[in-house]
Amino acid sequence: MNDGGTEQGAPDVLDALIVGAGFNGVYQLYRLREEGYSVRLFDAAAELGGIWYWNCYPGARVDSHVPNYEFSLPQVWEDWNWTERFPSGEELLAYFRHVDQKLDISKDVRFNTRVVAAEYDDEHNYWHVRTEDGHEVRARFFIPCLGFAAKSFTPDLPGLNQFSGPCHHTAHWPRTGVDFTGKRVGVIGTGASGVQVIQEAAKVAIHTTVFQRTPMLALPMQQRCYTVEDMAEMKRDYPEIFRRRNNGSSSFYDLVPDPRSAMEASPQERTEVFEAAWQRGGFSFWAGTFSDILYNEESNMEAYRFWRNKTRARVRDPVLAEKLAPTEPPHPFGSKRPSLEQGYYEIFNQQNVTLVDLRDTPITAVSAHGVECADVGHELDVLVLATGFDAGTGGFSQIDIHGTGSLTLAQAWSEGVRTHLGYAVPGFPNMLILYGPQSPTAFCNGPTCAEVQGEWVVSCLNYMREAGTVRIEATDDAASSWVEHMHDMADMTLLSRAQSWYMGANVPGKRRELLFHPGVRIYLEQGRTCAENGYSGFQFA
Ligand code: NA7
């Protein structure tokens, strides 16, 4: 292994140091190396996989179906066959091992290495990066590929550390597993992770207690198994699918909404479009019905009513049905990311599953033996914290990043995130961010962003190499325009109406702002225009 400046034979200064071995980091390493750059990647995990390495809780599964959720590189897909349309966390880790075999990634990765600081040397134009174990490297470009969920969020519940049984956040699940069989399992949180854990717990636990604060407007996954023959059939269309995915209006090649407003369609047409999307499953009902579902309140309400009626029909007890799928929407449909479920609502018909509505009875304390809600004790053997992430910016707050003049990233973002196109921050030359805040990230998906944003960064570095420039920095004006554009996007949509992690609103005290760009097509166009205009909004030296 060769770490840039600290080991024999290594270049004095690397061309690029990447942080994070998920889809974005892996693609970036592969492509930059292919273009002839000296590049290394550091990751705190023991193997490739990013989020799939850490979130190894029971039932972990991706919510973006393949082939949207895989690399488009033929040498990777030609001899890889998925067994499910929405692969499990384990299958995704196996995929990363296959990618490693094909692209020879690990030889340039330092695993078990947490980056704790990065400082820009203004005089020599390189980044000085330090790791938790005292390792140091220098690199011309610092490329954080941290993902949007690098920092978990655990609420400050009184007595939480008193609980005597196993208690784990879904993002820090023990790799040796936790057996739910015959146990009384409590799950706090009903986001994507909560729904998945609850589905698994309800199969084997003697009792499952679900602590719900906001009802999750979950959608049927409509999972399908794939045979090798199915995959061979699908692969005939792969080149065209990937072309559409990487150039398209959404990062899902097959989620194409009816261009009309839902209110322009007749009630019967509307129901037919909704029903077809429901049957297709996954995010179809969220992003593949009518173009204005996330923009127009009336259209949104039509989608909510359809969802509510379908969901309530699955729950026998009308009181429970009202808690799970309320008459009035808790927030506009889809303004929080919908979880994909596989029999989630039927679980509440089981005798051994209890729903605790935290709106009626909030958690007052956690004790050695369970969770107390407004003086009612719920006895538990295992407690699962499915309470989400400090999304988008949390990962950055875990690294002490200094730009020019000792400006810290925390200072630069103290009045809100400021980037140009999500790629760069004024005052932080040669730091190029992938899959971060103010880019599509959570409205796109890892592999697609890795390729479309990744190619933008590769082209930018090549442009600089050809022009003989060594330093790129976003201008202040460009960042101000991008911030304004993000505000406009928030105002145009219904997204700002929910207390979601898209808005940074799930973490107490965090600034409320739209963290991700919801218009992939607009975003890609802006990136292309910027590059065609000689990287407008950036200054070079
Ligand atoms: P999410 O979607 O942020 O879900 C977190 C859940 O935890 C959600 O139901 C929260 O309720 C709940 N929560 C958070 N704090 C509390 C407190 N203090 N008390 C009770 N309940 C609480 O995280 P996930 O890990 O499920 O999913 C994140 C994304 O990762 C997912 O969408 C995929 O894209 C991958 P709330 O809704 O805020 O009332």
Uncertain segments are 1-6
Number of helices: 17
**Strand neighbour order, sheet with most strands:** 3-2-1-6-5-4-17
Bound molecules: ligand NA7
CA(first)-CA(last) distance? 32 Å
- Give the oligomer, counting copies of the same chain as homo and different chains as hetero: single chain
Percentage beta strand = 15-25%
Q: What structural class do helix, strand and pairing data support?
A: alpha/beta
Total E-strand runs: 19
Helix content: 25-40%
Average pLDDT taken over every residue: 96
Biggest β-sheet strands, sense, barrel: 7 strands, mixed
Radius of gyration: 23 Å
Tertiary shape: globular
Describe the structure.
It is built from 17 helices and 19 strands. The chain is of the alpha/beta class and 541 residues long. Helix 1 (23-34) runs parallel beside helix 15 (446-467) and helix 15 (446-467) runs parallel beside helix 17. Ligand NA7 is lined by residues 63, 149, 155, 170, 188-194, 211, 213-214, 337, 358, 386-389, 499, 501, 506.
List keywords for this structure.
single chain, 541 residues, 17 helices, globular, binds ligand NA7
Reconstruct the topology from this structure.
Elements: E1 14-19, H1 23-34, E2 39-42, H2 51-54, H3 74-77, H4 89-103, E3 109-110, E4 115-121, E5 126-131, E6 136-144, E7 167-169, E8 184-188, H5 192-204, E9 207-212, E10 219-220, H6 228-235, H7 238-247, H8 267-280, H9 284-287, H10 297-312, H11 318-324, E11 340-341, H12 344-347, E12 353-357, E13 363-367, E14 370-373, E15 376-379, E16 382-385, H13 394-397, E17 400-402, H14 409-412, H15 446-467, E18 472-474, H16 476-492, H17 520-532, E19 538-540
Helix pairs in contact: 1-15, 15-17
The site of ligand NA7 has 23 residues, from helix 5.
